[in-house]
Write a structure and sequence with these properties.
The protein is mainly alpha-helical and 154 residues long. The chain has a single domain (44-153), classed as Winged helix-like DNA-binding domain superfamily/Winged helix DNA-binding domain (Arc Repressor Mutant, subunit A, Orthogonal Bundle). The protein has six helices and three strands, in the order ααβααββαα. The protein has helices at 26-45, 52-63, 69-76, 80-92, 112-133, 138-153, and strands spanning 67-68, 96-102, 105-110. Strands 1-3-2 form a three-stranded antiparallel beta sheet. The longest helix has 22 residues, at 112-133. It is elongated and about 75 Å long. The chain starts with 25 loop residues before the first helix and ends with a helix.
Length: 154
């Protein structure tokens, strides 16, 4: 009596889920990348009780001592109405102080506490950036940044 071998059952086809036609669109890819990076950076800053926008404002002030709120708003594309509560909150926390007034504009500077916080933020931002750029060479990174800037500068 010949032994008849049973052929194995075909492997079930895994449902990869619905296809996403948006994956071919630059705007979609930029939004997804931005969301992933901002969520990660937010996690990096959480224990410092600092939001990404607040850190961004502090970084600009650190780099541009005596900058005004309106100048920061232009650099970061933050509306004027949103700058006042942001800087007020950072001032209340003792991270920045208002300096010389020219007309209605007040110059902003980091306090020693603000400078110390920014030293820690720079370390965390460096770790954060390294995670997302791992495996991308320096030349490719520079090209990526240049091309992304071309997209948003128009």
């Amino acid at each position: 009596m010949a032994l008849k071998l049973k052929s194995p059952a075909p492997a079930p086809v895994e449902n990869a889920g619905p296809s996403n036609p948006l994956e071919q669109l630059l705007g979609y890819q930029l939004r997804r990348a931005s969301q992933a990076m901002m969520a990660d950076l937010g996690t990096e800053l959480a224990d410092l009780d600092l939001k990404v926008t607040e850190m961004s404002v502090l970084m600009v002030i650190e780099e541009n001592q005596d900058i005004t709120q309106s100048e920061i708003g232009r650099v970061l594309a933050i509306q004027r109405a949103n700058m006042v509560p942001l800087t007020t909150q950072l001032e209340r926390r003792g991270l920045l102080r208002k300096g010389v007034t020219t007309g209605r504009a007040q110059a902003l500077r980091l306090t020693p506490a603000g400078r110390a916080l920014m030293r820690e933020c720079r370390k965390r931002v460096a770790r954060h950036e390294a995670r997302f750029l791992e495996g991308i060479g320096k030349t490719q990174r520079e090209a990526l940044l240049r091309h992304l800037r071309m997209v948003w500068e128009g």
